[in-house]
Specification:
The protein is of the alpha+beta class and 1156 residues long. Helices cover 27% and strands 17% of the residues. β5 (279-287) and β6 form a beta hairpin. α3 (135-145) crosses α12 (521-563) and α6 packs across α12 (521-563). It catalyses: Thiol-dependent hydrolysis of ester, thioester, amide, peptide and isopeptide bonds formed by the C-terminal Gly of ubiquitin (a 76-residue protein attached to proteins as an intracellular targeting signal).
Length: 1156
């Protein structure tokens, strides 16, 4: 079957489409479209280049096709006029259709766009003027560039809105309790009524009572949305980076306040804590035999109740008060019966305080793991509680602990505001109104706004069984995070918290009519000062903003006036050449924001505080516009000669001389240097001309060469380098260097392919090929100095003789290598393995390890690798004639020296020159040596290095932590078992080595740690080493602990040499295993083996709450411990490494460099 014929392609369309505009410039010579179209046509030598040719390379000649685009910002925008018909009267000829007309235009104008005009030097329309054209966007950018930043009114307090408290790192537990106590008006009033000494010796600023007065006063009368209680925290000496237990803080702080209140003269203050928060309970034991009743009373500040899942507060309170039967081994010794009797024991609540605290025991001690854990069982609590039928209590506050771990987490508070009669969520400085304490109503529908869903930590649900109507049914709120419940006694109906039947609090704030306590004078003065300072900052911001806006209006008008009149309107006009990047920089220089400064890490002040404090300092400075040095460089279009670079012609723009002068005068900015079209660089144009001409001429010459007929088998010709010819025939040869001629075929890199070092024909026939005489003449015209060898030239006789001799030498080298290997078999098999166990009680000598390595490499390839010439032991002898290394220290001998038999040393002396002899002997426990060790020279030898290797010993799990007491130098004889194994290096003519016998004594000393050799430099730091180990060993930096001679390397910024790390030193690496059970939500017993108990922190030890008296405040300065190597998580307050992007515990993103 004949093959199918291919379909003939349709001819290319030569005519125009209907309605297409004829562009007659395309029909002209194509060289007008190219800046280099004159190369090879009008000009064939650099000396023929004229000024017009140079201007054409920049697109600045009079015949350039670059259009003079009109200034789109100087032309008023009008509707586009409809185009008239082609025949002038709007009608077409008879028999023609309107689409059949071909438009021929003599005044066609190229379309102006940012893409097509990017390289047009006459178009100035797309340099950023649009940023100034839109006044609103320009104003916003200018204000941003003026560093006005956010308005300080952002931090102002909303009317009738509670004040939040700043978290200083991990002080959320204190903030939560302060919010609860602040809403207790009798307690707040008592704090205000405390009288403090007014003598000069009393340190008022260091008094916790005064700082508590200031804190409450700022929360009551302050005009900022959040108050920073840093001075209160400092007065209590609390560690801001440590998470503490909120319940423990409450007890200790109340005890401290009670002690201070006892010093007051007012009797009501002396009993304020006990009257407001303290109740009494009685432990009653009743003998079942004689009904004898034994009672023991005690006071309490809070009632502790245990947690059981899905239980109500009433049920757990009833479980606390229910009777316990004492029987069996736990019988009661009745004083009346004078014998052990069965009895009942229960607790009675004797008196209840006005403010009742219920502590939910969420944190329990797990004896299986010897750790504290958090119980996540849900607890239902009532909005109203009735105790003994006569005390009505209403829920006023809920303390919430968020997080699954007992060691980390975040405390928040939900508190009822007595002034506005509204519930609020207090998350440190963030205060949110709560529409409902629960997320669901009784019928299951959702309530609350979207903004409060995350803030609501509780959920409302009906009781399990109830026969009451919905209006009388008690309201329950369920939560898995509630930590403390605060109830307040209701005296009458007016004190009750208004609530709907579904548990929703009244969402509209209303005044309760309560009278707020009066502020103490000194605290009021402090708050007034803070309020005035904040008001002054707000006013200064507004004044500066107004000045900035006035400056913006003037500047915008000035910039727009210049950019509307800076275009060149005709070719040859007096103008200045500027770079596109420089003009863009000038247009937007007033709209660029200055670089932001990074906050210091490790500070207890939050980021908002830093911004606010910088705003205070900024408000005191005079207004200055965003100015740079007033110079915009045009270096983007300059060549190495300081003139216009033709290769950067696409980045050049022309502006009028008048506009250049207005920029310098009106805007105080100089565009330097001021270059004109006449400042073209003749040298650069000539260089590029040669390259352009080469790109035209070279393919033509290659084409001529390829057309020369190939050389026949018997025809005479010439030899040429095959790599050179292959490269030269490329359209862009790799050998070609810009502005340089190509190397000839016998150049330095290709001459050896044809000629040998003796000037004769090379014996390597694969690197050369034959060409004909005609081809040779063509190449000689291009490279006149090339003198090729004819194809009938004889091979170099010297090279032929060397080839014959080389074969004989190789056989001799192999024979010599086999002989030496047989004579030094023990050294070959064991020298580099460190196996000194087989050399016990045998005279030995020290040999450089580098000599052994070079010798073994020669044994592998004796014909290719040079044989070692001599053995030099002088590097082991110091200037004092003593040993510069210790043969008993493994790090000294590891890579620099080896031990061989004395008989092998004698053979080496016979075969090689060198010395001197360093005699040693292995006694089993140590290596004896005749020459003593020079300590200073040994240390100098190991500490002087630029690049060296060290050994990282990775300690196995369960290995004791290294310490200076347990550290000892690793002896050379101590690693025998690890290295005592047969050689695995295969050499020329080697056979399998039988397995060496190892004694039980050797096996007992084998260590379990892994080792890894790493290369370090003298400039590396501990952090660099940890990053290297993370890459090499896949062990995260955060779990690495490095030890040098038993001392942990804690300073990550210290260099390794400053810490005393020596060449071939040993560093121990211990991997910290993280306890994954810390975040477990399960309450089930763990089946895994018991882990080591987590060490408890110091708690409140060392703080004022631990028992320090106020008298210590005069002699001891208040210091705030800071840890600059960590930063706290804003969610769970865990102390993370400074380079952590997210929290290790909760994966919350952490802002770089900010300690929250």
């Amino acid at each position: 079957m004949p093959p199918k014929r291919t379909r003939r392609k349709s001819p290319m369309q030569s005519a125009l489409n209907a309605g297409e505009r004829l562009k007659r410039t395309k029909l002209t010579d194509s060289r007008v479209y190219s800046a280099w179209g004159w190369v090879g046509t009008e000009v064939s030598d650099a000396s023929q280049i004229t000024k017009q040719h140079r201007l054409a390379t920049y697109g600045l000649s009079e015949s350039s096709l670059h259009s003079l685009c009109p200034n789109r910002y100087a032309i008023a925008k009008t509707p586009t006029q409809e185009q008239g018909s082609q025949n002038g009267d709007g009608k077409v000829a008879a028999g023609e259709l309107e689409d059949d007309v071909i438009v021929i235009s003599d005044d066609e104008t190229p379309t102006c766009s940012s893409k097509t005009c990017r390289t047009n030097p006459y178009c100035l329309n797309y340099l950023g003027q649009e940023k100034w054209e839109d006044e609103a966007k320009a104003r916003e950018a200018f204000i941003r560039a003026a560093s006005l930043g956010e308005t300080p009114r952002k931090y102002s307090r909303k009317p009738d809105h509670p004040v939040g408290l700043k978290n200083l790192g991990a002080t959320c537990y204190a903030n939560a309790y302060l919010q609860v106590w602040f809403q207790d008006l009798p307690f707040r009033s008592g704090v205000y009524r405390c009288h403090l000494p007014e003598d000069e010796q009393f340190n008022l600023e260091a008094s916790p009572i005064f700082q508590l007065q200031v804190t409450f006063a700022a929360m009551q009368e302050g005009n900022k949305s959040a108050f920073n209680p840093v001075k209160l925290v400092e007065s209590l000496r609390l560690r801001t980076t440590e998470q503490q237990d909120a319940q423990e803080f409450s007890k200790l702080f109340m005890a401290h306040l009670d002690t201070e209140f006892q010093k007051q003269a007012d009797p009501s203050l002396k009993t304020l804590i006990s009257h407001q928060f303290q109740g009494s309970q009685t432990y009653v034991t009743t003998c079942q035999a004689c009904q004898y009743r034994s009672e023991r009373s005690s006071d309490f500040l809070e009632i502790e109740v245990t947690i059981k899942n899905n239980s109500t507060l009433e049920e757990r309170l009833a479980a606390l008060l229910e009777s316990e039967v004492l029987s069996g081994d736990n019988q009661y010794l009745c004083p009346r019966c004078e014998a052990l009797q069965d009895a009942e024991r229960h607790v009675e609540l004797s008196t209840l305080p006005p403010v009742l605290h219920f502590s939910l025991l969420r944190f329990v001690y797990d004896f299986s793991t010897m750790e504290r854990k958090k119980k996540l069982g849900s607890r239902k609590r009532r909005r109203k509680g009735d105790s003994q039928g006569k005390n009505m209590y209403q829920l006023r506050g809920i303390l919430v602990h968020k997080g699954a771990s007992a060691y980390h987490g975040h405390y928040e508070a939900q508190v009822f505001d007595v002034q506005t009669q509204t519930w609020y969520q207090f998350n440190d400085e963030t205060v949110t109104k709560i529409d409902s304490l629960g997320g669901k109503t009784l019928n299951g529908t959702k309530t609350g706004s979207k903004t409060n869903k995350k803030a609501n930590a509780a959920q409302t649900s009906p009781p399990a069984t109830s026969e009451k109507s919905s209006s009388d049914r008690p309201i329950y709120i369920s939560s898995k995070d509630a930590y403390m419940l605060v109830y307040s006694r209701v005296n009458d109906a007016r004190d009750e918290v208004p609530a709907a039947a579904d548990g929703q609090a009244v969402s509209r704030p209303r005044k309760s009519g309560v009278s707020l306590p009066k502020l103490p004078s000194r605290a009021a003065t402090t708050v007034t000062t803070l309020n005035e300072s904040h008001a002054a900052v707000c006013k200064a911001y507004e004044d500066k903003k107004q000045q900035t806006l006035i400056q913006f209006d003037e500047l915008r008008q000035r910039i727009m006036r210049i950019v509307k009149s800076w275009n060149v309107t005709y070719r040859g006009q007096d103008c200045v050449v500027a770079s596109r990047q420089g003009l863009e920089s000038w247009v937007s220089r007033h709209l660029r924001a200055p670089p932001a400064s990074e906050p210091k890490a490790g500070s207890a002040i939050t980021q908002d505080d830093q911004r606010y404090e910088s705003r205070v300092a900024w408000s005191k400075q005079p207004l200055e516009p965003n100015q740079d040095d007033g110079i915009v460089a045009m270096s983007q279009v300059l060549c190495e000669h300081g003139r216009l670079d033709p290769s950067k012609a696409g980045d050049m723009k022309l502006i009028t001389q008048a506009a250049h002068q207005r920029i310098a005068v009106e805007d105080a900015c100089r565009l330097v240097p001021a270059l004109h079209p006449s400042d073209v660089c003749a040298d650069c144009v000539a260089t590029l001309f040669d390259e352009k001409l080469y790109q035209i001429e070279h393919p033509r010459l290659v084409d001529q060469f390829d057309k020369v007929p190939a050389l026949g088998e018997d025809e005479p010709g010439y030899w040429i380098s095959k790599p050179w010819l292959k490269d030269w025939r490329l359209s862009r040869p790799k050998m070609h260097v810009t502005s340089q001629v190509d190397p000839p075929p016998d150049g330095p890199d290709f001459g050896q392919d044809v000629k040998c070092e003796h000037g004769g024909l090379s014996a390597n026939v694969t690197a050369r090929r034959r060409i004909s005489s005609e081809a040779c003449l063509l190449l000689q015209r291009i490279f006149p100095g090339w003198k090729p060898l004819p194809t009938d030239a004889e091979l170099c006789p010297v090279c032929e003789a060397l080839v014959h001799i080389s074969k004989e030498d190789k056989r001799e080298f192999r024979r010599q290598a086999e002989e030496e290997k047989a004579r030094l078999k023990h050294m070959h098999d064991n020298a580099l393995n460190g196996n000194t166990a087989l050399l016990e009680n045998v005279p030995c000598a020290i040999v450089p390890a580098q000599f052994i390595r070079a010798w073994r490499q020669w044994l592998l390839r004796p014909a290719e690798v040079p044989r070692p010439d001599r053995l030099d032991n002088s590097l082991f002898i110091c200037e004092h004639g003593l040993l510069a290394l210790d043969p008993n220290v493994n790090s000294d001998m590891d890579t620099s020296a080896v031990i061989v038999k004395r008989t092998d040393w004698a053979t080496i002396e016979e075969l090689y020159s060198g010395g001197p002899l360093i005699a040693v002997e292995n006694t089993g426990s140590r290596i004896e040596h005749e020459l003593p060790v020079c300590g200073p020279c040994r240390l100098k030898r190991r500490s002087t290095f630029e690049v060296t290797e060290i050994t990282i010993r990775i300690l196995a799990a369960g290995t004791p932590t290294p310490s200076p007491e347990s550290y000892s130098e690793e002896l050379t004889t101590g690693r025998v078992a690890e290295t005592a194994r047969p050689s695995t290096l295969l050499t020329y003519g080697s056979r399998k080595t039988p397995v060496l016998r190892q004694s039980s004594r050797i096996r007992r000393v084998k260590e379990k740690a892994k080792r890894r050799r790493v290369t370090i430099t003298s400039a590396m730091t501990v952090k660099d080493l940890k990053l290297l180990l993370q890459e090499e060993l896949a062990i995260s930096v955060i779990v690495q602990r490095l030890f040098l001679r038993g001392q942990e390397l804690l300073d990550t910024s210290a260099t390794l040499t400053s810490l005393g790390i020596l060449s071939n030193d040993l560093v121990d690496l211990q991997e910290q295993i993280e306890d994954v059970n810390l975040l477990s939500d399960s309450d089930n017993e763990q089946t895994e083996p018991r882990r080591k108990a987590r060490p408890e922190g110091p708690g409140f030890g060392g703080t004022l709450l631990s028992g320090l008296s106020s008298s210590h405040l005069k002699s001891q300065p208040i210091t705030q411990p800071e840890d600059s190597s960590t930063k706290s998580c804003p969610a769970c307050t865990f102390a993370n490494e400074m380079d952590s992007a997210t929290c290790t515990v909760c994966d919350t993103p952490i802002e770089s460099g900010v300690g929250l």
